[in-house]
Design goal:
Helix 7 runs antiparallel to helix 8 (364-377). The chain has helices spanning 12-19, 27-31, 145-161, 187-191, 202-208, 314-331, 346-358, 364-377; strands at 58-64, 69-71, 74-76, 86-91, 95-99, 103-107, 112-118, 123-130, 133-140, 169-171, 218-224, 226-230, 243-247, 253-258, 261-266, 273-278, 284-289, 294-299, 304-309. It is α+β, with helices and mostly antiparallel strands and 378 residues long. It has 3 domains: 12-171, PH-domain like, CATH 2.30.29; 187-331, Pleckstrin-homology domain (PH domain)/Phosphotyrosine-binding domain (PTB) (PH-domain like, Roll), CATH 2.30.29; 346-377. 23% of the residues lie in helices and 29% in strands. The strands form 4 sheets. A 5-stranded antiparallel beta sheet has the order 1-4-5-6-10. Strands 3-2-9-8-7 form a 5-stranded antiparallel beta sheet, with helices on one face. Strands 13-12-19-18-17 form a 5-stranded antiparallel beta sheet, covered by helices on one side. Strand 7 and strand 8 (123-130) form a beta hairpin. The N and C termini lie far apart (88 Å). It has 8 helices and 19 strands.
Amino acid sequence: MGFFGNNESDGPAEMLADEARGDSVTAERLTTTSGGMMKMDHFSQKPLIDILRDEEKPQFYFYHPNKGLSKDSNTAGGGMSSDFRTICVVTNQRVLLFTDGNKGEAIRFGAITDTETNSGISKNRLSIYTDGTEYTVYIAGKTNIEEIEAAGEYILEKASEAEAATSDTYVVDGFQPLWKQDNAISTDEALDVEPQGAYVTREQFRKVSDILDSDEQVHFITRGSTVDVEGSSAGSSLFGDDRSRKSGTKGWVRAVISDRRVAIKVPQILGDDERSVPYSNITSVDLDTGLVNKRLTLQTPGQTYHIEAHEPGKEEVRDAVRFIRKKISDANQPDVVQTESSEPDPLDQLNKLKEMNEEGVVSDEEFEEKKSELLDKI
């Protein structure tokens, strides 16, 4: 398909577009891999037509340039700073959802119970319901609302023909999950901690939630341009031997100071660079402050991380440093092992001594003498 796609009159993309129910499905949208319409989107390396399965035919294609998807109250993708548009493709086999660069899931027709559409000035909406869950797709306002309504009716038609499904969605091959697993804590739970910096907002959390564990809680977040990694064959660069500088080529470098570690996310065009530094591995933390920039330095036995922090302000970063130092101290506290004493219980000894006295094994004099010793121990 390549850069410009296959637009021959008898090409597979053109045939699929001709057979689609909606005018929104075009050969260009099925085959474009870079530049023009798709910009730096999900399919900059692989066209949409290559995602389709055998005998799968796209019927409707919807998108929004900066609005994500939602599963009940959980959002995936979107935001004014997003480099990726959100795409929804309704095919004859499933409903495909893509957002946030490399995330994609498919809704099974057999799980769908209802649909709903809504039109607005800046965006339209297609809601897909399963048993107890609402999936909301936001669609660019210029899209014909009649086509969106037709898509909703088509989805219900396919759902009525499909066998009942045991689960709503599955991850599309080659993509990452849109939403965290069902056992993941909610955003409110992840942010409901003390202490916590004022820079930690739902918007900032959304930008780093993909690198966090399902039950991880966030205390502080920093944002900067670079992170330098020094030591243990980190590499060589202009900044010295055995030291490499990593810059965000697709966004800011963010460090998350959580309840269990410092996690670093370096957004890259061809995949994010992620680093995890558990508190038990950190031997010291330092802070350098300048007129504008600040730099957190985490020392470990193998490597040193120099994390640039434009945001938040100095006082909040100092609070973060104090928090890290406390977590280091807690992580390195020796475990106190409780062991049972090998010394016999004096009460048990006294009872046995009394039985031996009654049986004549121990004389009255010996009993009184030993009894006195045991009572002193009680």
